[in-house]
Predict the 3D structure of the following.
Amino acid sequence: MYYRLKEPWAFRGWKKLPFAICAMAGKKKNSDPILMEKAPFLDLLCCNGEEDVDLSAFSETGRKILRELTEHGIIEQSETPLPPLSSYQRYHIYPARRMRSVHWSITGKCNFQCRHCLVSAPSARHPQLPLSDCLHIVDEIARCGIHQVDITGGEPLVRRDFEEIVKALTDRNIDIGVLFTNASLLTADTLDMLERYRQHPVFQLSFDGLGHHDWLRGIPGAEKQADDAFHLLKDRGYTVNAAMCIYRENRDSLRSTANYLAGLNVHNMRVNAPQRLGLWKQYADEYALTEDEVWAVYSEFIPHYFEDGMPVGVELDGYFRCRKGTTKYKISYVRNAKDDEDWSRCPYCESVRYHMYIGPEGRVAPCMGFSDTALKEKFPSVLEHPLGDLTLDSFYRDVVNTKVSDLLAKNPECAACEHLPKCCGGCMVEGITDDGDYLVPDSRCCYFHRHIGEDAVRAVADSAIEKRRYDHV
């Protein structure tokens, strides 16, 4: 009997099958990878319409999957050979751990002087790789079956060969998911170029409060440039998010900034107190807010947010997260693990298991927060080793594989803490020390649970929601 996949995109949203790890079936632009265990995947490699399939040689799971796919009309069967699969339909085996996306700093250079830069771009501590190395990185990303790249810098648009990188990504069927930019170099010509290559990324623009943006970015006129870019992107129909860093001088501008951005059709506004990493170490003592001051800013803003009609989606550090136009909110600091959680199976950071960071010098790290720490030199380079190998066996992989149990083994006070099921250790990078120890409790998350707490956030938010409901009766 001959079997053949009808359409690869028919797999999308398929929930009943035991998909797990290590393979991807079919690829069409914007389709999702279909993951399954190794044995049934190897079985389905035979279902190409050309091979006479012996089902007795299939694994039990492989026979079950084939039967269900056939019953649902996703795979067709015939007693005679079927037309071969099209090139984009063929099954692929990628020699790498599955990754959903890459966050890539394509340059370490920047035309701004941001006082909180994680990669110390204003001091030019990181290089800008030549185009040939960037194209090699694109090839490595493609070989790993990764089909989304989020581009950042430094400032990515300072690269004169930015278009060549966009072309290389497009040629390899890789989408630009998010483009992070300070907006100073963003023009209509930039958008025209992206659209020629069928790229339509979400833009994330830095904006640090009405009347305060110039100071944190270190450039006079930065706020005007951002305003121009917001209007341009609105006119061109792009989805736009904004990132605001909150510090002592701009803490009273949160409400006015949220409403300003809402008027420009900004979809989401992410607010955070800068991490004491990179250049911010030089300014934190004078300008950083204490955790109690951060909560005071957020607790004042949340009622105004609901009063103003939830005009933009917001993320306030780990304290509060709400979608535009809704009253449903989440508290990211609260993870709510099971009472009997097996911490040896619980990742310290879930996100880094599926998203990686490639720095401006080509080093592979779990996230951007590691880029300017004492561990930087320990992370391997994709210019020296195949990216797939690094996802399977490297110091990078060791860090990604860190479990909450590793944190607890080194910090017995955390193991005994009543808040552990809610914090689960917090953020891996927030607690990192000057000597590179990342098995350190996240002090901000810890402070939240010990001194502020979920109940305090819910009291403020629920009261504001109830008032809004009463006012609109």
